[in-house]
Design brief:
The chain is an alpha/beta fold. It has 16 helices and 17 strands. Strands 4-10-9-8-7-5-6 form a 7-stranded mixed beta sheet, with helices on both faces. A 4-stranded antiparallel beta sheet has the order 13-14-17-16, covered by helices on one side. A two-stranded antiparallel sheet has the order 1-2. Strand 8, helix 10 and strand 9 form a beta-alpha-beta unit. Bound molecules: 4'-deoxy-4'-aminopyridoxal-5'-phosphate.
């Protein structure tokens, strides 16, 4: 067997060198050195064909969807094609359950804002977990402030695992919705969302899953999950920025009040009131980021082509390798050691400032990581740390990049910062 074949076997059947050639940013050098991009949990790099699709649309096809002319009809068709691709990608029942937003944050606000305006009353409860991103905390807090509902928080243990006994006991007739991350952006652990959804459903409680960190790394199957809402951003998966998805079961999208008022979310408008459109149009007021949505469709094709079952296996191999290598360093304390994790590695350095390490890695090695509170200030308080350093991996990363990263961390320690 030649070395390329061995390489492919180790890498879950993926030709990583070839995949890397598809990503222009991975070819870029700063000060003569390549970029080592370990910040995919913040945003994913884009395959060239996605950028090309955006460029081609702007250069040769540009027109606004829903206009009657040729360009408008073409744009409408392309947007609706992406909607169909997203529905199939997620295993949704129908493309009518796919709402385009400007990102996961907006998708969560559509749900929280809808509950605030029509479905919450004083004394009601919303259940979240202690490891949520600010995007899945603050919208619910705002809804509570307006309605007198209460936010209940399910605690986690030292490994970052959710206290399932607390969760089960907290579900009551007062609980109006459960809103939980599919996987943690800060610690990487997968939450037992299937079990949580099952327990909530036993009491007739709907569940919203924040899939911002899961959708880029695993094959999501909404038929199996059976949650009422699922949210994520395209940019973390490799699409242009400014596109997000809210999946909602038909009866829940029917129940939820519209998010914004404006064009296209109403079928008739008179001064005595509008006639609200059927979902998904009901939630898509005004001009959408249609060019980005169209290029998002190209990304879905790409992910289907490289096969997310393979990328998941490879990313898990990378995570195990990175965890093993970084654990050899004395001062490193990994946070979030649950057995089931996304390719996210977060740690602190005893007696050292992770912000200084972040800067060192970037200045000296072009290594991009994220350090600080990781947009999870309540979680940092629970962990009793000011911040963590997070290296987040993707299928376009390599073991060689991890070796350089680990070597650079060792060098930083030797410099006695
Ligand atoms: N939820 C989680 C778990 C996230 O990691 C993020 C982004 N870091 C968001 C929500 C918000 O995503 P966006 O900023 O793309 O709206």
């Amino acid at each position: 067997m030649n070395s390329a074949a061995i390489d492919t076997e180790i890498n879950a059947g993926l030709d990583i060198s070839k995949i890397r050639t598809e990503f222009p940013m991975l070819q870029k050098k700063i000060n003569g050195k390549p970029i080592i991009y370990l910040d995919s949990a913040a945003t994913g790099q884009k395959p060239k064909r996605v950028i090309d699709r955006l460029y081609q649309f702007y250069m040769t096809e540009y027109g606004k969807p829903k206009e009657s002319h040729t360009l408008g009809r073409h744009a409408t068709e392309e947007v609706e094609n992406t909607r169909k691709k997203v529905a199939a990608f997620l295993g949704a029942g129908s493309e009518k359950e796919i709402v385009f937003s400007r990102g996961c944050t907006e998708s969560i606000n559509m749900v929280a804002g809808g509950f605030e305006r029509g479905l919450l009353n004083t004394g009601d409860e919303i259940l979240i977990t202690a490891l949520e991103h600010h995007a899945n905390i603050v919208p619910w807090q705002l809804a509570c402030q307006q309605t007198g509902a209460k936010l209940k928080v399910v605690p986690i243990n030292g490994k970052g695992e959710v206290d399932m006994n607390f969760f089960e006991e907290a579900l009551s007739s007062k609980t109006k919705i459960v809103a939980v991350a599919h996987t943690s952006h800060a610690l990487g652990n997968k939450l037992p969302v299937k079990e949580m959804i099952g327990l909530a459903h036993k009491k007739g409680i709907p569940v919203m899953v924040d899939g911002a960190q899961a959708a880029p790394h695993m094959k999501v199957n909404l038929k199996e999950l059976d949650c009422e809402f699922y949210t994520f951003s395209g940019h973390k998966m490799g699409s242009p920025s400014g596109v997000g998805v809210l999946y909602g079961k038909k009866e829940y999208l029917d129940m939820l009040p519209p998010y914004e008022g404006g064009a296209d979310m109403a079928t008739e408008v008179a001064f005595n009131g509008p006639v609200i459109a059927e979902p998904p149009a009901k939630f898509e007021a005004g001009t959408s980021p249609f060019a980005e949505i169209i290029a998002f469709g190209t990304l879905i094709d790409y992910l289907n082509e490289i096969d997310m079952e393979k990328t998941e296996i490879y990313e898990q191999q990378l995570l195990s390798y990175a965890t093993r290598q970084i654990s050899k360093i004395d001062r490193v304390v990994i946070k979030g050691e649950a057995p089931e994790k996304e390719p996210v590695l977060s740690f602190l350095m005893e007696g050292m400032d992770v912000k200084k390490l972040e800067k060192f890695l970037n200045d000296e090695y072009n290594i991009d990581v994220k350090a600080g509170d990781l947009t999870a200030q309540p979680l940092m308080k629970i962990l009793g740390v000011p911040g963590l350093l997070r290296a987040s991996l993707c299928y376009y990363n390599t073991r060689e990049e991890i070796d350089i990263f680990v070597g650079a961390v060792e060098e930083f320690i030797k410099m006695k910062h």
